[in-house]
Write a structure and sequence with these properties.
By secondary structure, the chain is mainly beta. It has one domain: Neuraminidase (6 Propeller). The strands form six sheets. The protein has a four-stranded antiparallel β-sheet. Strand 10 and strand 11 form a beta hairpin. The longest helix is centred in the N-terminal third of the chain and has 12 residues. The N and C termini lie far apart (55 Å).
């Protein structure tokens, strides 16, 4: 009852979850062009799901699984799956887990994909991220139980909170749901205190302890968070799309959203995207107009590239950007291997590499 009254008050006053304000990118999140100056190690259609496999890089591109040396050489395809790969994780022993768009989980050696063990559960679909716990269990993020991985825009526009966390036990591969009612969990990190989850549609990091208690660690992010990975003494968080006042306003106008979803083609929805088509049919917020063939880097945008470095307390300490006029938007995954940070720009169609030491010193990142 108290929650209902609070929501009614927020809607009337336009604050809380009913506010259309978006936190500015300032301070630690001040925009730069780090991703634009990064080295391109390989081009792909929609690269995704980076993992460190024994000092080498594994990444997915649609249904393709690729392996690359850390130096960015000798990229080769290991296997082509019939469905897109939507999640990946590897444990200390070299066991690779792959989530497919249809919901199946595969486990085995990446060099022997044909013989991977297949795990299927009737209620587990839309796997979008996963991570191994130290004891060997696999935690799987189910983004939505109502929409598939490719329909994430619809899931946001419908304001769904049907995501869940699942555990696949390492001993017997028994599958069980351990958390539900999440607003598109797009990243998970096992820790001693519990599971840290990036809850995309609520733009926050959430700690879920073994008893099920939920604690907000980082709230009101300027974009929608994706995968979260350890890095040194801290962590790296990918932001796959930006928030904007226009989109926040549309999210609070149900009648408009309902008509938009039914009457407008998805590519023209007023919704975040992984990349901008730069079409004259694109929805536009004031300040986002292309003038003399140029889009200003500070223009309001529906796509963006951003990686946030967090400290041990899950607070931002650095950030790496591809701004509104940049090429490498839609960052969905990243991983540190040796002295390099690899980043998957799904919207930009490239895997990037930044020199970690130079980033810390504030030098040239190319």
């Amino acid at each position: 009852m108290i929650s209902f009254l609070r929501q009614a008050r927020d809607r009337f006053l336009g604050r809380g979850e009913a506010a259309v304000t978006v936190p500015p990118m300032d301070g630690t999140l001040r925009p730069d062009s780090s991703l634009e100056r990064a080295a391109i190690v390989t081009r792909a259609d929609q690269p995704d799901n980076l993992v460190n496999y024994g000092g080498e890089l594994l990444f997915s591109d649609g249904g393709g699984l690729f392996r690359m040396e850390a130096a960015g050489l000798n990229c080769r395809q290991l296997h082509q799956f019939e469905e897109p790969i939507t999640a990946m994780a590897v444990n200390a022993a070299g066991l690779l887990a792959i989530g497919l768009a249809g919901g199946a989980i595969l486990m085995g050696c990446p060099e022997q994909c044909e013989t991977m063990q297949r795990i299927v559960h009737t209620d587990l679909d839309c796997p979008v991220a996963m991570a191994f716990e130290p004891q060997g269990d696999l935690i799987v993020c189910q983004g939505s139980s109502l929409n598939g991985p490719d329909d994430w825009q619809r899931d946001l526009m419908e304001r769904r909170t049907s995501g869940a966390l699942w555990r696949v036990r390492g001993a017997d591969h028994k599958v069980e749901r351990i958390a539900s009612d999440l607003a598109y969990p797009f990243g998970v990190l096992p820790m001693a205190k519990g599971l840290v989850v990036s809850e995309a549609w609520r733009h926050r990091l959430l700690l879920i302890d073994p008893a099920g208690k939920r604690t907000i660690l980082l709230d009101d992010l300027p974009g929608y968070p994706a995968r979260l990975v350890p890095a040194g003494t801290g962590y790296l968080l990918c932001i796959f799309a930006p928030r904007s006042q226009l989109i926040e306003f549309v999210l609070r106008e149900k009648r408009f959203r309902d008509r938009m979803l039914h009457e407008v083609e998805p590519q023209h929805w007023i919704a975040p995207t992984l990349t901008s088509a730069r079409s004259y049919l694109d929805p536009m917020q004031g300040g986002g107009m292309i003038t003399h063939g140029q889009l200003k880097p500070w223009a309001p945008t529906r796509s963006y590239g951003l990686v946030i470095r967090l400290d041990a307390a899950m607070q931002p300490v650095a950030s790496y950007h591809s701004r509104a006029d940049g090429r490498f938007h839609g960052v969905t995954a990243c991983v540190e291997i040796q002295d390099d940070l690899f980043i998957a720009s799904k919207g930009g169609g490239a895997v990037l590499k930044l020199a970690v030491e130079r980033l810390h010193k504030g030098g040239d990142v190319a």
